[in-house]
């Protein structure tokens, strides 16, 4: 399967872009969705979190208190390293499984930390969804109802805009109208269909 990696900093609108590709019939393997389900109640990952932090890591309904854990790991590098060591192998296993099961002409691996977690090695091409950093800040504060300080911590935990763009084979500018965004997606989709067909033909030979 020909894999397109899609990434972008927080607030870049990566999900909006992948939703447009999904509307064109492309399977989306979303690392964020996988990561959320890794922490489902009863699973080994959440049980390990409870063992380390106790019931304070949970909401009243037994689900992970993601806001609490996010604040904890951004303040403690050791806690972040521990959580990454716990979850990354589980997430990678699910990513591989879902990529193998995809049935569309090509498949998208969507991950905010595609570059940082070296998931680019699973991809044939990388698309970066890009907006100015100030747009990232404004969108994230409005969407997540978090402080500017917390947004800065999240952005600092991700690679810089320049570092991300250095990995890009293609770039979508998402600081535009919905129509302009749609046009960019449709043009790239046609390009990726050709790439996937060529890759399949080469493999058959």
Automatic annotation (TrEMBL):
Residues bound to ATP: 11-16
The UniProt record lists the keyword Phosphoprotein: no
Enzyme class name: transferase
Catalytic activity: 3'-dephospho-CoA + ATP = ADP + CoA + H(+)
Subcellular compartments: Cytoplasm
EC number annotated for this UniProt entry: 2.7.1.24
Molecular function, one GO term: ATP binding
A GO BP entry: coenzyme A biosynthetic process
Biochemical pathway: Cofactor biosynthesis; coenzyme A biosynthesis; CoA from (R)-pantothenate: step 5/5
Assigned keywords, A-Z: ATP-binding, Coenzyme A biosynthesis, Cytoplasm, Kinase, Nucleotide-binding, Transferase
Name of the molecule in the record: Dephospho-CoA kinase
Gene source species: Pseudidiomarina sediminum
Annotated gene: coaE
